[in-house]
Amino acid sequence: xxxxxxxxxxxxxxxxxxxxxxxxxxxxxxxxxxxxxxxxxxxxxxxxxxxxxxxxxxxxxxxxxxxxxxxxxxxxxxxxxxxxxxxxxxxxxxxxxxxxxxxxxxxxxxxxxxxxxxxxxxxxxxxxxxxxxxxxxxxxxxxxxxxxxxxxxxxxxxxxxxxxxxxxxxxxxxxxxxxxxxxxxxxxxxxxxxxxxxxxxxxxxxxxxxxxxxxxxxxxxxxxxxxxxxxxxxxxxxxxxxxxxxxxxxxxxxxxxxxxxxxxxxxxxxxxxxxxxxxxxxxxxxxxxxxxxxxxxxxxxxxxxxxxxxxxxxxxxxxxxxxxxxxxxxxxxx
Length: 334
Description:
By secondary structure, the protein is an alpha/beta fold. It is 40% helix and 18% strand.
């Protein structure tokens, strides 16, 4: 089992930052700590701003570091972990221009970039760029074309594609990506039509952040049927799952860490939530329990667990929470 870390990069991500704005030095601190702890990969997300209303927190939009710029900087901060985004929103960049940036990132990182793409779900992202959020079917159609264009452009071109939403004509991407034939393209989501898209055009599938093993097993069945429909071996689709994680040395320590998580989380997010409730659909327990849970995910073909050590996406509590999860899962090795 490989282990990824959902790196804090929002203003809400880490409690106690001056003026409520996340410092770049804090991002670097967590990235370097994850590398020392043996994490195999570091992941960002892609929004222009993000509020926490859907998680029980404030509806006020919070700031965030741009993922592409941040990945470029991280490539010089950490030497070993792979780097990626879960996931880049199709609507925010033309696919051909995105591929240019990703190829440069792959060069800068010496072949450590993984490409995560998604259809988009957060309506304020669309509002801020002055477009109406399309219905789900159109967003998936746009995503399918974006994957096709990105893959071809990452291979270098020349490439021509006259799609409904994305068009390129004799486009080249020089220098192209280091990885051959191209960096892996992972698509994020969970619906039946999304999984059909994965089976057709993607290298891998990710879904995050709350999943039980049984619910995920149902989605795997849908993916396998989608692969059969296009005559693809399901084993060729890499699988990663994002989960909130909390680990204790023993049950008493786990209870202590959960209370600390409550204290360090954005206001409202964990109001009235008990530790037993927090366990459901998350990677939570003692070292031995978390290790057993990771083994159950591996048995379902999950190759990478991407963990967040906070109560909302891309939030983090403390470095020792990050380190203990790595010890339990036994993921990456320096």
